[in-house]
Amino acid sequence: MDQVTLRRREDGAIELRVNGVFVMDDVETSSERLLARHVLDGGARRVLVGGLGLGFTTRELLADADVEHVVVAELHHEIVDRMRDGTIPGADLLGDPRLEVVVDDVRAVVAAQPVHSLDAIVLDVDNGPDFLVHDKNAAVYGPGFVATCAERLRPDGQLCVWSMADSEQLRRVMAEHLLDVDAVAVPVVLQGRREHYWILTGRRG
Ligand SMILES: C[S@@+](CC[C@H](N)C(=O)[O-])C[C@H]1O[C@@H](n2cnc3c(N)ncnc32)[C@H](O)[C@@H]1O
Fold first, then answer.
1. Continuous segment of H or E residues that includes residue 156
2. Which CATH class is domain 28-203?
3. Which numbered atom of ligand 1 lies nearest the CA of 59?
4. Where are the alpha helices (DSSP H) in the chain?
5. Backbone angles phi, psi at 145, to 5 degrees
6. For 103-158, how does the pLDDT look when each residue is reduced to its tens digit (9 = 90+)?
7. Cα–Cα distance, 114 to 78 (Å, whole number)
8. Cα of 182 from ligand 1 centre, angstroms
9. Which secondary structure element, helix H or strand E, spans residue 148, and what is its range?
10. Where are the alpha helices (DSSP H) in 15-75?
11. Which residues 6+ apart lie within 8 Å of 55 measured at CB?
12. Contacts for 96 with CB less than 8 Å, ≥ 6 apart
């Protein structure tokens, strides 16, 4: 069983670890919020998010009054529980009637959606195909699941995937099912260093 740890560091930041491996903190969250902005700018109203985490992607989506429904798939109930009790800021999000949180693997939650029902699917469950925290998440970046995502999107619907690095392999897999596949570099400053995170995007034809 995975061990989920949330702690407040000496610098005041909240840090999430799973099995001792750093997942994220609340210091540099521009790429998490940009994931949401990308699909909002494309007009998304019904969105599925893989990974609640510290809630930044979900908060950005729900801040848009035009958004009608957000389904969040979160593997670890502890994260939802800690948001509910206020350890992670976001109890207000959980009270939003447009939000549905499902504690399960994102692959099962996407598969359970009706075909052509979603304007966008936003995946931020791991660090990308080449830096996995959970070995099982390799399948999230594989052809079977990308095909399942594409089927759940309405025509012109978008799939956006957060990744620590660009991945030619993932872009190739996405291009088998989606149009206009692209990798967007998001500049970030991490402990004083200028780096990039990446958002891989594609649109259903
Ligand atoms: C990097 S965090 C997500 C960050 C989020 N975008 C935010 O704005 O805070 C990744 C989250 O995905 C969850 N997760 C990992 N694997 C998953 C899976 N297969 N299905 C659903 N959630 C998963 C983790 O427990 C964690 O909460």
1. strand 153-163
2. alpha beta
3. 8
4. 30-41, 56-62, 77-84, 91-94, 106-111, 143-152, 168-175
5. -75, -35
6. 999 999 999 999 999 999 999 999 999 999 999 999 999 999 999 999 999 999 99
7. 28
8. 22
9. helix 143-152
10. 30-41, 56-62
11. 83, 88, 89, 90, 93
12. 62
- The residues spanned by each domain of the chain are 28-203
Residue 168 contacts residue 141 (beta carbons within 8 Å)? no
Token pair belonging to 156 = 């012109």
Instruction: Report whether residue 40 contacts ligand 1, using a CB cutoff of 6 Å.
Output: no
As given in the structure block, the two tokens for residue 38 are 């990308």
Q: Which residues pair with 184 in a beta bridge?
A: 199
State both tokens at 159.
Answer: 């799939």
Atom of ligand 1 nearest to the CA of 140: 19
What mean pLDDT comes out for the span 173-197?
95
| Distance (Å, whole) CA 86 – CA 194 | 32
Name the residue of 75, 104, 131 whose CB sits within 8 Å of the most ligand 1 atoms, as the mutation to test its pocket: 75
